[in-house]
Amino acid sequence: MNLNMNLDMSLNMSMTKLRSAALIAALAAGLACAATPSWAQAPSAAQAWPQRPVKFIVTLGPGSGADIGARLLADRLAARWGKPVVIENRPGADGLVAIQAFVNAADDHTLLFTPAGSFTVHPLQYSKLPYVPEDLVPIARVSNTIIAVGVPASLKIGTLADFAKLARAEPGKLNAAVVSGITEFTFDYFVKTAGLGIAKVPYRDIVQAATDLSESRVQVMMSSYAILQPHALAGRVKVIAVTGHERTTILPDIPTANESGFPALEVEGLVGLFGPRGMSNELRARIGADAAAVAADPTIAERLAATAQVPNPGGPAEFAAAIERQRAQIAVIAQALGPIPKQ
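^ that's the sequence the OP posted. Answer follows.
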């Protein structure tokens, strides 16, 4: 009888311990769920996404290449998803205005559409940032903006090497206009490694710089080809190089900077979609596949080409790898340029 009583007591104690362990596990799971956004808890919910309108926050203003690309993508994705896709332009402060709005939203129905160059150089520009890199989760690479180098047609220069030769022969006499951000840092790197003496002219409106270039008030400009295009087509500006890794079908006769002997001037104009921290890999893959399918549409390619963009669809992993390569490139540039004043 004592033996039976001892067995009953042991069994009761074991059951009590099991119940306590189960209660602790349940409480821990509850706390974990409370700390995680509801949209990040169930990856299988990716199949039911979106449940409401989707918003693309764009770092550049209406009419910019990124804005046009975002709207083309949004129209097609809205048809695929059966929900509206709204564009919200939040230009300013080198992309920080849009990025902060995106991070503050913390919502899987609010995505960021931006050139990667809008933020990969932020650590060089700012001593304090309102976000960390992990807040911007790559979803889909959509396109590459064509970045080009142009000179006044009146200079009678045909190549990048010719321009470098002229700049060395006349140190301090040539002026440059450059789009801020990664384009400017890349241009500075080119100037330093090529041993050129060129002064930069600051512009509040970079479109005005293209007009000044066409009239020889500045002697070189590096920007998206879209800004240079009207003057190039009018014969007032000569495009002497593109900065991508490969030539573009839009400008097949224009060599790359690397082909021209100046690899320091190589930079890719990566543009794509980003999601918030905590977005499931399943949802990233689904949105990325939809965006890639839309970007590969020949009609979209034709309309992107009109804004000097080339479709370059890629999923989350491809986009993330391309961004890391850009960050590595910026680290090399930063080391070569030395201390840079920060805001």
